[in-house]
Each structure stands twice: as structure tokens, then as C-alpha cells.
Specification:
binds flavin-adenine dinucleotide; D-Amino Acid Oxidase, Chain A, domain 2; eight-stranded mixed sheet; 11 helices
Length: about 425
């Protein structure tokens, strides 16, 4: 494995620092330069990455930085940050149970911890912790097992009893008749990061190493002859490549259909909500253990929260009212004070829900064509490790050891990675 921060950025990159901010502030802010270039597409690249979301940009960054592959284009049909990377509720954690998942998410956590130094970009990474509430003895035992598994993978976890949790979160409704709160599984190193800054930071870092980031460039087809992919058709013309790496999250089914492939993935809407700004009240991230509700507080003071997917297949980036009610019911069950806060805004994003709730980072049956997707609603926290492992696969031809379980053929082999134990039901993962 490569070191987490091995090569220094090229000297031509404008470095950000407190001194630079001070100097620009005193000289009329005339020295800032655009954060990335706007190049026209070349006719050929070593690697084309389809999709300029977090995962595509992270892949480009690690390809250039860790593997020295810089003749790379990221093709984005909209603008950088327009997809789920700029729509999620920003939760970062590595509190998984299964051996196929936990080492991958812990690798991601370690990359998050060094991300701002690596990118020289303020991603507002805030390790305020996450606590998963438990509401029964059986759930406590399950969380104890998960916490032990996390520790075996080098992650941190603390099982809190009710007294310990009360100290941290006195405002929770411990005596709720239906869902009494008995304690929580706490991961202190978890937290939140500012999602669009993550996209911009990766874009800037990849661009600075020579990667072409091409916005408003939709991939409309693949050039495939004799089982080999040699490029893509785009809204800005045909571009050839030695390798094509698809990374389009909620559009996975539609894009891979252009290569004649059907995926074990459905697209669903997931909504997010933000309240008016409040004084600091939520210490980190809190998740409801008997329903689906998660909440944190942004630096501006808004409560940022969400819950279940809308539950029907859709490519629309907006949701419906029954889920708004369901999410708010979840919030009221654990912290009734949330009923006093006014909702400020809400939006939807497109989730690539896989059949076992786990992702794919793999070659496809077409030579030269690679696929990364199926992130469900956990893909933001995975961004660094997804880019790291996808870059490894593209550069070496071999799956990274931390992503070895994320094979496309796992439903044929039976080696599914079903973290929830819910079966082949995307709406339950
Ligand atoms: C409301 C909401 C809350 C969430 N909360 C969390 C959370 O708290 N924690 C967490 O870990 N995860 C969360 N997620 C999930 C996470 O955001 C996604 O799993 C992750 O962002 C997906 O990867 P990405 O960033 O690469 O996707 P995207 O940003 O969606 O990138 C894919 C890109 O591909 C582009 N594209 C599509 N088709 C084409 C084409 N034909 N040609 C060129 N480009 C194309 C799209 O325009 C898009 O920009 C949440 C998601 C949503 C919607």
C-alpha cells in the first residue's frame, strides 16, 4: 500500500495559508486565481473518468498523485458539485460490522483525517463523533458486537450506557414510551465535512497535477468493439481512451445500459432537510436506532437531518411529502424539542441502491471498462477510500485489498455484503 501522503504537490499550485488570506485581504483580493482550469477535451486520454462527483474527482486525484497517471479526463455532464457530492447530509464515519466493509470504511476515515493537509484545502472536517442510539437490550448486544469489530479493524468505539449518554446529550427523550433510549454506540472520530468543499478540493488537487476536468460534457455512449472499450461518445464529441472508468452514482443504471449492461442497482430519491439556525445544541451526529433519522448541526447553526429513501424508483432530484412526515416523526421520537424548530430548506438526491446495500469497485465484462457505484446513502463517507481503491484498480489491474469484496459477480457467487441482513431489498438497506 502507498503511504497516505507520499508526493508533494507541484510548485505551480497556488498554496492556501493563513498568511495568504491575510495578504489578499490587505491587497484587495486581487491575487486569487481560478481553482481549476476549463480545458477543451483532448482527442485521447490514458484514463477517462465518467462523472465528476466526489468519487470521480477523488479517483482522478489519487491516480495522478499515487500512481503518476496524469493524462486523465473527468467528464461531468453538469457542473462539479451538482450531484450527490453537494446534496448529502455530510456524515463521515466507519462504524461498520462486516469484514468486507469495516476495513474499507476505516481506510476512508484515515484518509479523511489527513485530507485537508493532502489537498491543501479547507474541507471543514469536524470530528465531533457519532452516536447510534439503542433502545433495547438486544440492540445493545448487537452494538457491542459491532463496536468490538470496529476495534479489531483499528477503529474507535465506545459503548455508552444511559448515564454516559445523558451527560453528552441531556436533551434526548429517554423515557419515550415506545422507544426508550437506553444508551448508544459512540464513535468519537466520526463527524461531518463540508461536502462541496470536498468536491472543490479534490478538483483543484487533480487539476494541479494535469488532470482535465471537463464540465458540461455528457457521456452518451461507449465505443466498444470485440469486447473492448476504447472510448466514449459525448455531447462534445468522441474521445478515445485506454481505460474508461464509470463513476456516476445515481445514474449508474442509465449510463451502464449504454454499454449493454444491467446492474443489480435501483435508483431512488433520498431527501435532506435543514432547519433555521439555532445556538449549538447537537454535539455531533445522532442516529435513531428504532427508526430512520439522523441529525447533526452545521457550523451556521442549522439542524441537518434525514431519514429513509422515498421508496419508489426515480431519477428526479426531488422528493415527496410522506417521507417528510416520516423523517420528522423520527426526530420527534428522540428529541421532541425539534418540533419547535422551523424547517428552512430541503432537497433530494439520486441514490444508487444496490441489492445488498454495499458498493461495487470492479472491472466489467468489457475489457477496458470499469465500474464504481452502488453507494446507496453511504457514499459520502466513502469518497476518499473509493477514489483510492478505484485508482488502485485502474493503475494496477488488481482490486485493492480493502475493496476486495466489492465485486460485480457477488450475487452469482453468493458472497453478498449485506450489512443490514435485510436481503435483496434496496429500500431496506
Ligand atoms: C440527501 C442525501 C443525503 C446523503 N447523506 C449522506 C451522508 O450523510 N453520509 C454519506 O456517507 N453519504 C450520504 N449520501 C450519499 C452520498 O452523497 C453518495 O453516495 C455519493 O455522493 C455518491 O458519489 P458521488 O459523490 O461520486 O456522486 P455524484 O456527486 O452524484 O456524482 C456523479 C456524477 O456523475 C454525473 N453524471 C451522470 N451521468 C453522466 C453522464 N452520462 N456523463 C457525465 N457525467 C454524468 C452526475 O452529473 C454527477 O455529478 C447522501 C445522499 C443524499 C442524496
Amino acid at each position: 500500500m502507498h503511504s497516505l501522503c507520499s508526493v508533494k504537490p507541484p510548485v505551480t499550485v497556488m498554496r492556501y495559508s493563513a498568511l495568504k488570506v491575510l495578504k489578499e485581504g490587505l491587497t484587495g483580493n486581487r491575487g486569487w486565481r481560478p481553482v481549476w482550469r476549463e480545458p477543451d477535451p483532448k482527442t485521447h486520454y490514458d484514463v477517462i473518468i465518467v462523472g465528476g462527483g466526489g468519487h470521480g474527482l477523488a479517483t482522478a486525484h489519487y491516480l495522478a498523485k499515487e500512481h503518476g497517471i496524469t493524462n486523465v479526463a473527468v467528464l461531468e455532464k453538469g457542473w462539479i458539485g451538482s450531484g450527490n457530492i453537494g446534496r448529502n447530509t455530510t456524515i463521515v464515519r466507519s462504524n461498520y460490522l462486516l469484514p468486507g466493509n469495516e476495513p474499507f470504511y476505516e481506510l476512508s476515515m484515515k484518509l479523511w483525517e489527513n485530507l485537508e493537509q493532502d489537498l491543501n484545502y479547507n474541507a471543514m472536517m469536524s470530528q465531533r463523533g457519532i452516536v447510534n442510539l439503542y433502545h433495547s437490550d438486544a440492540q445493545r448486544d448487537a452494538y457491542a458486537r459491532r463496536g468490538n469489530t470496529m476495534r479489531l479493524a483499528g477503529a474507535d468505539s465506545v459503548l455508552l450506557d444511559q448515564a454516559g449518554l445523558r451527560e453528552m446529550c441531556p436533551f434526548l427523550d429517554y423515557d419515550n414510551a415506545r422507544f426508550p433510549i437506553k444508551g448508544g454506540l459512540w464513535q468519537p472520530r466520526a463527524g461531518t465535512a463540508r461536502h462541496d468543499a470536498v468536491a472543490w478540493g479534490y478538483a483543484r488537487a487533480a487539476d494541479s497535477r494535469g488532470v482535465d476536468i471537463i464540465q458540461n460534457c455528457e457521456v452518451t455512449g461507449f465505443t466498444i468493439n470485440n469486447g473492448k472499450c476504447s472510448g466514449v461518445d459525448t455531447s462534445r464529441g468522441r474521445i478515445s481512451a485506454n481505460k474508461v472508468a464509470v463513476c456516476v452514482a445515481g445514474s449508474s443504471g442509465r449510463v451502464m445500459a449504454q454499454a449493454g449492461m444491467q446492474l443489480p442497482i435501483e435508483s431512488h430519491v433520498l431527501q435532506a432537510f435543514v432547519s433555521e439556525g439555532l445556538k449549538p445544541v447537537i454535539p455531533g451526529v445522532i442516529t435513531f436506532g428504532a427508526g430512520h433519522f439522523y441529525v447533526s448541526q452545521s457550523d451556521k447553526g442549522g439542524l441537518v437531518f434525514g431519514g429513509d429513501i422515498d421508496g419508489y424508483n426515480s431519477y428526479a432530484q426531488r422528493g415527496n411529502l410522506p417521507v417528510v412526515e416520516d423523517v420528522c416523526e423520527g426526530g420527534m421520537a428522540i428529541m421532541p424539542m425539534i418540533g419547535r424548530a422551523r424547517m428552512l430548506r430541503m432537497w433530494g438526491g439520486l441514490m444508487d441502491m444496490s441489492m445488498d446495500g454495499s458498493p461495487f469497485i470492479d472491472k466489467t465484462s468489457v475489457s477496458g471498462l470499469y465500474f464504481n457505484g452502488g453507494w446507496c446513502y453511504g457514499g459520502f463517507k466513502a469518497t476518499p477510500a473509493s477514489g483510492w481503491c478505484y485508482a488502485h484498480l485502474l493503475a494496477t489491474g488488481q482490486p485493492h485489498e480493502s475493496a476486495a469484496a466489492y465485486r460485480l459477480d457477488r450475487f452469482m457467487s453468493g458472497a453478498v455484503v449485506d450489512e443490514r441482513g435485510a436481503g435483496a431489498q434496496p429500500n431496506l438497506h
